[in-house]
Amino acid sequence: MKKIAIALTAFIAILACKNESTSELITVNYPVTAKVDTIDTYFDTEVPDPYRWLEDDRSPQTEAWVTEQNKVTFGYLEQIPFREDLKNRMEKLWNYEKVSAPFKEGAYTYYYKNDGL
Predict the structure, then answer these.
(1) Beta 108-110 vs 103-105: how paired, if at all?
(2) Number of domains composing the chain
(3) What are phi and psi of 108, to 5 degrees?
(4) Is 2 contained in some domain?
(5) CA dist 11 to 2, 16, 18, 114, Å?
(6) Per-residue confidence of the chain (117 residues) as pLDDT tens digits?
(7) pTM of the model
(8) Is residue 54 situated within a structural domain?
(9) Does 114 map to a domain?
(10) Owning domain of residue 73
(11) Using alpha carbons only, what angle is made at residue 39 by residues 37 and 41, rounded to the nearest 5 degrees?
């Protein structure tokens, strides 16, 4: 009888964890990232680096890539239904007065104070 009760409890717990969400999944269409044929040789070992072009953060190609990635990222974040609720909750938790421990600098004593967000 005890084994049946344990098995039944485990079964109910598993059913309770099942996600029956009716919300639709957010699809993300990532832009294609170009690959280049860059190969470095270190101690007679060839190491491919197809994304080397992204290391030049001032190039127009990298800037265009970052712009496209940001469109995808912010487009996704804007679709999250509970985003505003989460933002409000985080502000409520973090918006309080903060005062550091005092510290001496020369002949003066200082402390940092933040009235909140």
Answers:
(1) antiparallel
(2) 1
(3) -110, 155
(4) no
(5) 14, 9, 11, 51
(6) 677 767 667 667 676 665 555 567 778 888 899 999 999 999 999 999 999 999 999 999 999 999 999 999 999 998 888 999 999 999 999 999 999 999 999 999 999 999 887
(7) 0.57
(8) yes
(9) no
(10) 31-87
(11) 170
